């Protein structure tokens, strides 16, 4: 039987009189590829922050497996540090790869030699997305759960192909928020959670 990584029971989140959602229940098991579907403004990003522990629920229970590791790729790519160069950013996540191996990965993700010293603050959204994926690849430990929030927003076809291929190759548990039905199908989402307003 699959190991339950996350279990949500009757979860409610409100800010004052504004109730974003209430009494939500679902589970995410080891190895599952899950899509989260909801209308704009219905609290998807808030729910993701609850799952990662950066926010607390108003009511209900959220149980995480002991030692669960999670990487959250938000719409602002906040794992990217604007004051670092592209190579410095990747190196900050590096576990044991040699410099030439890091440079090979940067090339694979369309960062030429001329761009390695570029400050991350100057990167486009698509470039930040690609660099985030590079960081995930070289980190000390592949996360148990990878959460991705609207990753296809404002990226071109070339970046879309890289994103799709990377997520298809990822072998951990995946939770994706996306309005792009074609993308969701391509990355082999097997379960959907609908967040009703």
Word description of this protein:
The protein is an alpha/beta fold and 197 residues long. The protein is globular, with a radius of gyration of 17 Å. Helix 5 links the parallel strand 6 (145-149) and strand 7. Strands 5-6-7-3-8 form a 5-stranded parallel sheet, with helices on both faces. Strands 2-1-4 form a 3-stranded antiparallel sheet, with helices on one face. The chain is built from 6 helices and 8 strands. Helix 2 packs parallel to helix 4 (125-138) and helix 4 runs parallel beside helix 5. The longest helix has 14 residues, at 125-138.
Task: Please give the largest β-sheet.
Answer: 5 strands, parallel
| Percentage of residues in DSSP E strands | 25-35%
**Which strand order does the major sheet show?**
5-6-7-3-8
Total helical segments: 6
Are there runs of 5+ residues with pLDDT below 50, and where?
none
